Amino acid sequence: MHVIYGGTFDPIHHGHLRLALEIADALSVTKVHLVPCHIPPHRGSTGASSEQRLELIRMAIEDEPRLRVDDRELRRAGASYTADTLRQLRQELGPDEPLVMVVGTDAFAAFDRWREWADMPGLAHIVVVKRPGADLPVGSEAARLVRERRADGPEALSSAPCGAVLELDPPLLDISATGIRQRIADGRSPRYLTPDSVWQRIQALGLYGACPAGNF
Ligand code: ATP
Known about the structure:
216 residues, alpha/beta, Rossmann fold, six-stranded parallel β-sheet, globular, binds adenosine-5'-triphosphate, NAD, ATP binding
């Protein structure tokens, strides 16, 4: 089973990292692949560049063999669409290997605005992680998909290559990249919200308004 977990990771933090391991445990897989997405240029001025986000992810997962980074969306020119990524992976994995996409309810709520969203269940299973305060709107396409394609448990994902939706409710850390960027911009430390190596590198690069000479 091939499991991908996408996001902007601007920057990666312990909330992302814990979730990735919770998923590995819940699905009994030995690897979860983090897939950073391309950020449109108009967002770039406040965040980190693609290369910088990728570097921070690499540092964060360096000593964790269960976490991998897949930089295919950053290598593709222009905007990256999840459907293209799933299609590419499906080609690489062949028709029978289960492919799983992990997404939080905050992102999944607007699923029907993703490009070619209707094709996705034909390419992958979807694991929807419940995030506090981000319920799927009643009557939304996302809620309908969960209802109609609900998997009873993680085992169901191994028995087909795609098409099921599994809801998971693992323990989550209340951390957001927005909160980290805000703290740094305010001159406060985000220590313990993200690995020390990541925070050190953010400072060295002066990202998000960090002072390059700053301490923890
Ligand atoms: P931002 O604050 O910039 O929106 P974020 O911290 O929410 O960023 P993203 O990169 O947008 O992170 O999120 C990627 C994926 O990780 C999404 O599916 C999101 O639901 C999930 N996620 C983000 N933060 C957490 C967390 N603390 N615990 C579990 N999942 C999270």
